[in-house]
Amino acid sequence: MNIKNYKLPQVGASGLFSLSMRWVIGWTYFSAFWRRVVLENKLNPDIAGYVGEKFNHFLPNALGIKPIIEYMVMHPHDLQLAMILFTMVEAIVGLFMILGLFTRLMSVGVFGLAFGILLGSGWLGTTCLDEWQIGILGLAGGFTLFLTGSDVYSFDHYFMQRKSKFTSTSWFRWLGSGTLPLENMKTFILSFSLFIFGIALFTNQSFHGGVWGTLHNKSVKPKVEISNVRLNGSDLTFEMYRTEGVDVYGSFLIGIQIIGPNNQVIKSLSVDSMSKFPLERIKNQYVTKVKPGKHSLIIPLGAKADLAIDVRGLSISNKDTLKLIDVSGIEWTAKIQ
């Protein structure tokens, strides 16, 4: 086939061909509002399942937007307002997309929401690349719907058929449906498609090593980073930050030990001590919180906290090591400064 002689299909026909995509993508975003507001209340920070905690899960390995996420999770009031606004945008974009009302404007909304999901949570997914796939397919789907607009079975088409005055304006062709006012459509489609494909390859490699090298999945097993381990009077204080692992449940800390230079245990906190760890000795920094559970100290994904251990009467030096023990048998260590 000679590409120079190729003719693009009628916009109306392509708008009809993409009907199922428009409905499914629309529901994908509208359903987020439906789940958080109608079926359950997930916008209340005092209720289990608060969506702000899920937002906190994105933080450890987000790409490019980590400072924005960190600011939000460190300012709970701003985070709640952002989650409410975000949910409202998803509701409007999703509903208008299902109805086919200002389809192209809503497709830009889909593209933006999908890009945020991709950069924030594209690294998550225990059995497959769940969030990455949602994000990158949202980008491609949003761009496709921008090109096609809506045809029959849409409010855009209804107003066009009634010859409503605003449908004859150039801005409606950009924000609603109809023929796009582009002179070189093929170049535009190719350029933007290459851009999206480039994002797909870059993020797939960055998050998962999916293009070359060794594959990795940061959602499989927990990882806790330890820093600022130092003596403060009669306390040993340190910062712990859960950066990897499954997002739907925490890491379960069943022991803390201080190990001497000859591997002797200077101090050990048992399972019982973990489940009764004093709340006043835990200073959480984010929305997701490190807290004692029934049988362990629970560390949710994305949680960062400063802990203090009473070491009065013990001889502790910078030759000693702090060890954290997870219920899975994984251990994390750091030298005392």
N-to-C series of helices and strands: HHHHHHHHHHEEEEHEEEEEE
Number of helices: 11
| Shape category | elongated
Distance between the first and last residues' Cα: 70 Å
What structural category characterises the helix and strand content? alpha+beta
Main beta-sheet strand count, sense and barrel state: 6 strands, antiparallel
Helix fraction, binned, reads: 40-55%
Low-confidence stretches: none
Q: What is the mean predicted local confidence, pLDDT?
A: 93
In total, how many domains does the architecture comprise? 2
Percent strand: 15-25%
Condensed summary:
The chain has about 325 residues and is α+β, with helices and mostly antiparallel strands.
Would you spell out the secondary-structure blueprint of this structure?
Layout: H1 11-17, H2 19-39, H3 51-58, H4 66-74, H5 76-99, H6 103-121, H7 130-148, H8 155-161, H9 170-175, H10 185-208, E1 223-232, E2 235-244, E3 251-259, E4 265-269, H11 271-275, E5 282-284, E6 291-292, E7 297-299, E8 304-310, E9 321-326, E10 331-335
Antiparallel strand pairs: 1-2, 2-8, 3-4, 3-7, 3-9, 5-8, 6-7, 9-10
Helix pairs in contact: 2-5, 3-4, 4-5, 5-6, 6-7, 7-10
